[in-house]
């Protein structure tokens, strides 16, 4: 299986899931909680430029826009973007959606203040690449917010791929907080801070150990 076949396989999976994905989604069931957690993790003193990488059905993008930020969001799945766009329209939120894979997204260097990456790193063949993109497009001192979890802890609730595709994904089982911190530090981020304690109850079913981490793009180097 080539790299392009992996990408196509992942995209086809999410295209197929898009129409029903939001039926039990955490950010749909508890949008105010997600807004509160993201607002804290953003630590912003006013409207900022936000880019949501791998936006899916728009969880972070919609929350960021509802908080008053200027938001762009990209994803390779046309079907997922369709759902996200309709959700933004119904909520009266202004989000610029871009159909593009993370590594190919037309995002200028040093063009944003905050990057969000929610439940994406586990589904990438090269997760470090997404963090490299985040660092490239962040302005000096900009902030990345990574949200993910150890999805194998609740196999009855998790998303899954074919065995052949799963073998190509280094974090197919999901990520621990330590995994994410290691990835962030290797990508040149500093001041890693956890925010998951702000959830009043576990955000996902099955007791999945989920985390929300923010980190700052180190200057220089």
UniProtKB/TrEMBL annotation:
Keywords of this entry: Methyltransferase, Transferase
Chain ranges of the Methyltransferase type domain: 51-146
GO molecular function: S-adenosylmethionine-dependent methyltransferase activity
GO biological process: methylation
Alphabetical list of Pfam families matching this protein: Methyltransf_11
Domain of life: Bacteria
Positions in coiled-coil regions: none
Gene3D superfamilies reported in the protein's UniProt record: Vaccinia Virus protein VP39 (3.40.50.150)
Name of the protein described by the UniProt record: Methyltransferase type 11
């Amino acid at each position: 299986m080539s790299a392009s076949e992996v990408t196509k396989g992942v995209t086809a999976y999410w295209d197929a899931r898009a129409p029903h994905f939001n039926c039990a989604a955490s950010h749909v069931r508890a949008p105010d909680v997600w807004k509160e957690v993201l607002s804290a993790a953003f630590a912003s003193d006013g409207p900022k430029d936000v880019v949501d990488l791998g936006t899916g059905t728009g969880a972070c993008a919609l929350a960021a826009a509802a908080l008053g930020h200027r938001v762009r969001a990209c994803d390779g799945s046309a079907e997922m973007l369709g759902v996200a766009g309709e959700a933004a329209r119904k909520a009266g939120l202004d989000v610029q959606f871009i159909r593009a894979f993370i590594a190919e997204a037309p995002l200028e260097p040093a063009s944003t203040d905050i990057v969000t990456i929610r439940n994406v790193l586990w589904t990438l063949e090269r997760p470090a690449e997404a963090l490299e993109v985040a660092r490239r497009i962040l302005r000096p001192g900009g902030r990345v917010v990574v949200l993910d979890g150890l999805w194998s802890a609740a196999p009855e609730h998790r998303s899954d791929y074919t065995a052949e595709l799963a073998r190509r994904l280094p974090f197919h089982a999901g990520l621990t907080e330590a995994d994410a911190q290691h990835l962030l530090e290797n990508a040149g981020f500093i001041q890693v801070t956890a925010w998951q304690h702000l959830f009043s109850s576990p955000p996902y079913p099955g007791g999945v150990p989920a985390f929300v981490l923010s980190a700052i793009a180190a200057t220089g180097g």
